[in-house]
UniProtKB/TrEMBL annotation:
<feature type="transmembrane region" description="Helical">
    <location>
        <begin position="361"/>
        <end position="380"/>
    </location>
</feature>
<dbReference type="GO" id="GO:0022857">
    <property type="term" value="F:transmembrane transporter activity"/>
</dbReference>
<feature type="transmembrane region" description="Helical">
    <location>
        <begin position="95"/>
        <end position="113"/>
    </location>
</feature>
<dbReference type="InterPro" id="IPR036259">
    <property type="entry name" value="MFS_trans_sf"/>
</dbReference>
<keyword id="KW-0812">Transmembrane</keyword>
<keyword id="KW-0813">Transport</keyword>
<dbReference type="InterPro" id="IPR020846">
    <property type="entry name" value="MFS_dom"/>
</dbReference>
<keyword id="KW-1003">Cell membrane</keyword>
<dbReference type="Pfam" id="PF05977">
    <property type="entry name" value="MFS_3"/>
</dbReference>
<feature type="transmembrane region" description="Helical">
    <location>
        <begin position="326"/>
        <end position="349"/>
    </location>
</feature>
<feature type="domain" description="Major facilitator superfamily (MFS) profile">
    <location>
        <begin position="24"/>
        <end position="415"/>
    </location>
</feature>
<feature type="transmembrane region" description="Helical">
    <location>
        <begin position="273"/>
        <end position="293"/>
    </location>
</feature>
<keyword id="KW-0472">Membrane</keyword>
<keyword id="KW-1133">Transmembrane helix</keyword>
<feature type="transmembrane region" description="Helical">
    <location>
        <begin position="240"/>
        <end position="261"/>
    </location>
</feature>
<feature type="transmembrane region" description="Helical">
    <location>
        <begin position="32"/>
        <end position="56"/>
    </location>
</feature>
<feature type="transmembrane region" description="Helical">
    <location>
        <begin position="300"/>
        <end position="320"/>
    </location>
</feature>
Amino acid sequence: MRLPDTPTPTPVEPRHGGAHALRALRHSNYRWYFVGQAISVIGTWVQQVALSWLIYRLTGSAVLLGVTALASQAPQLVIGPFAGIWIDRHDRRRLLLLLQIFLLSQALVLAALTYAKIIAPWHIVAMSLLLGVMNSFDAPLRQSLVKQLVADHSDLPSAIALNSALYNTGRFVGPPIAGILVGLSSEAFCFAVNSLSYLPLIFALTRARVEPNPRNQGAFAAVFREGIAYALSSYPIRSLLGLIAVLNFTASSYVVLMPVFARDVFHGGATTLGWLLGAAGLGSISAAIYLATRHSVVGLVKSIVIGASLAATALLLFSLTRRLEFALALLFLVGFGTTTCNASGNTILQTIVPDHLRGRILSFYTASVFGMAAVGGMAAGELADAFDAPRALRLLAFALLAGAGVFAMRLGELRGRLGTLVASLPL
């Protein structure tokens, strides 16, 4: 549906409060889910860093780093929009529970292959592709289930921001843990740790008691067209998804090249890689904590522009430095900027999207985040092989600055349309 063209006055900026940031944790279902997710996300980052280090140790190829990232995340770009239809047609809690069992099994297989010393690059790419297919369902499912776990929907902004905080805490804690575990043991041990990390979330989902989500039982093609039509006809949704896609194609691609920077630019090893990614994760945590104190979506559009611009500028400066301490500070800012943009967009979308379309729209969001990050990672790997890793990041940083500039020029219209929509919601 197309939103009214006449803007309404911008509401007063909401006050901030630390107590409000944690309000979602008063709901038992969400509290257990939060703890289970936190452990699972740390395990996922431990595996991701160990896997990137393993592929680079085996091959020394930046292109294969990009291929592995593409295999693990590109399915979310292709399958994600269709996964949203399944999510809207089935019990979200049960579907997510089943997926955790599959994800646990994938990590165990990866650990077994590596322990047996028969792991080869094609195994890694194939297992990454399988992981990507499962994550096409897992990521939007984790997002869309949040509203069902929070009985008082006025606590939804807190729950969404806390979700972002725990994801980025995993980004901060997981990489250094991976670096330590690889140094003390092996990549295989990291994969085994990840398999165990799914157990708390499985327990949380088993005990959760939630109201059944609305299910759309229409024809598959009709349901898909409905989601696409809604996203394209809504100016706020298509604008937000557009910038988020550009952000993750450009800024998030730095993750793929971090093994190259750790070894070839800063002359370190797995521990250096862990600190680089951990610095970005700390910036992301800081952004998520800030966003968790907000009471509504008012003012978040401006935060999106600032976040994208900050990420682009910091990424550009990171590509120029050869001092590790400066690099860590700049990656902190990259993490802060990307999370501010991604999480603000997620909060706005979760607030304005109707329940019966939630799975589909959030699958578009996760495709814009993870799918575009995978394509960008592949592009970054190709650019790094053609030129070098620092030049590759500089090109991507300039592209993001251009995208943020275009979005900023349309800020007034977006604020007006969004203000009209938010004012009509029972928030």
